[in-house]
Every structure is written in C-alpha cells, then in structure tokens.
Amino acid sequence: MTNAMILKNVPLTKYNSWRVGGAADALFIPKNLEDLKNFLKDEHYLKPLTFIGLGSNILVRDGGIRGTVIVMHAALNEIQMTDKGVYAEAGNTCAKIAKTLAREHYVGGEFFAGIPGTVGGALAMNAGCYGSETWNYVTQVNMIDDNGNIVTRLRDEFKISYREVIKPNSKEWFVGAWFNFKKDMAGDPESKIKEYLNHRKNTQPLNWPTAGSTFRNPKDTFAAKLIEDCGLKGFRVGNAEVSDKHANFIINLGNASAKDIENIIDYVECEVFKRKGIKLEREIKILGDFLG
C-alpha cells in the first residue's frame, strides 16, 4: 500500500505552459519510479490516467481533465551512462539531456536544447528540431502499464513517423529510454547548443505563455509561412493571439481561456485550408472537457 499523496480537484494552469485550463479530478506527483509503480499497483486511483511532463505541448480545456493526472517532470529525472547507451528517465527536461550529453562529450543530442519539454513528451510525439528527431537515437524504452508493471520494448515495436508515435499498447506510458549517442572528444556540442538557443530566442516568443509549435509542418513547406501568408499574424480571440514573432505560436497575453486558444486553432485551420488548400495537422494535443 502506497502512502502517496493524491491531490483532489487541482487547477492545472501551473502544470501547462499555456497557463490555461480547468482542474484535474485527481493529481499525483511521484517521488521516483518506485513511488509511481506502487501507486499504480494499488489500483485505487481514479481512471482514466493522463501522464504529463512540463505540459509544453498540451492544451487543457477549461472544463479540466477527468480521472488522475500524473505529473512526471518533478521526479523520474535520473540520467545514466550504461553499456546499452545513455539512459534517461522520462521526467528529465530535454534541456537537461542536451547539457548532460554535451558535458560528457556525446554528440548528436544538441537538438534537445530546442525542445521545451521532457524526455517522456519527446518520446510520445517524436519531438524534434534543427533536422533531428528523438526516435532517430532511441534503441529501446521502458514503459509502465496501468498496474505498475515495467515493460522494456525495442524501437521496432513502435510505429514512428513525423511528430507521431503509435505504441503497441495504449495502456503503457514512457518512463525512460536508451539513446545511442556517440562520444566525440574533439566535438564541440556546447557551441552548437548555444547557437540553437540563440536562434530560438531570436525567432520565438519565449516571453509569453505558449505551447511551442501549434501545427506540424506540411510536406515541403512550413506551417508558420502558410499562416503568415494568410495574414493571420496578430489575429486575436479574447486574450489569445497568433504571435507576431512566429506565426505557428499562439500566445496567452494574460488570462486567456483555453477556449480562446482553441478558437484560434480552429480559425487558422479553416483559413489556411480555404486560402491554400492545405489541411494543417495539430502538433499540440488537446486534453479534457469543455466548460459546462
């Protein structure tokens, strides 16, 4: 029996980077993997389960999320150099992974510095930037099921594509992964990280609450260009707005509702399809219920 503290009716605004949304029926923040396993083995939690990291790629609707939300990023943050590769638990931020790899003279992981989420989130959506994707480097992963059992799976058990990962079992969630980054004592990954961070700072509206890229890039073009070409930079609903700095970012100007943001997403999709004939696909995940 676990002594886990389960919080009830918790507002989720501080658990997502848009700073919007309603409450979770129940919220659990594990101390470590053992704590999470024990919590799930008890089977006394409210269902369904929703796992989140930094909440940097989700829109939580104003009616909140039913069941139990498990926040991974405060725990499950160990990184180990093993004979099977670099093992990173799912709660690590991508920024931490990038810095750790660089410090240990591993190359190839610099792109993680540009991903504002956790390893678990990066695994779930095959996050990427600067020409690299998470699953390019994954060899195998550890999953946890809804009974608290750990399952190790190989890369080829998943269907991997651009910003999409289909798991062999929907009732399993990522708790860690092995990456096959190579050591190069002559490389200079820290300089590349600085270059990526400067580019991010200069091109993205990082001073506002946002969830990063809202839409996936269609083949042979960029979502931001399509949105900008439709004259939608600065388009506003309530206190949410299409960023003037980067058209694929929607920002919360202060006290925006999730409905404001979702209305912008719907409108942008319609306008781009109407004017350009291209159906934008969402990169962000929309969770929870409408208010009322």
UniProtKB/TrEMBL annotation:
The gene is murB. Belongs to the MurB family. Cell wall formation. Pfam families: FAD_binding_4, MurB_C. One of its GO terms (molecular function) is UDP-N-acetylmuramate dehydrogenase activity. PROSITE patterns: FAD_PCMH. This is UDP-N-acetylenolpyruvoylglucosamine reductase. It comes from Candidatus Methylopumilus universalis. InterPro entries: FAD-bd_PCMH, FAD-bd_PCMH-like_sf, FAD-bd_PCMH_sub1, FAD-bd_PCMH_sub2, MurB, MurB_C, MurB_C_sf, Oxid_FAD_bind_N. Keywords: Cell cycle, Cell division, Cell shape, Cell wall biogenesis/degradation, Cytoplasm, FAD, Flavoprotein, NADP, Oxidoreductase, Peptidoglycan synthesis.
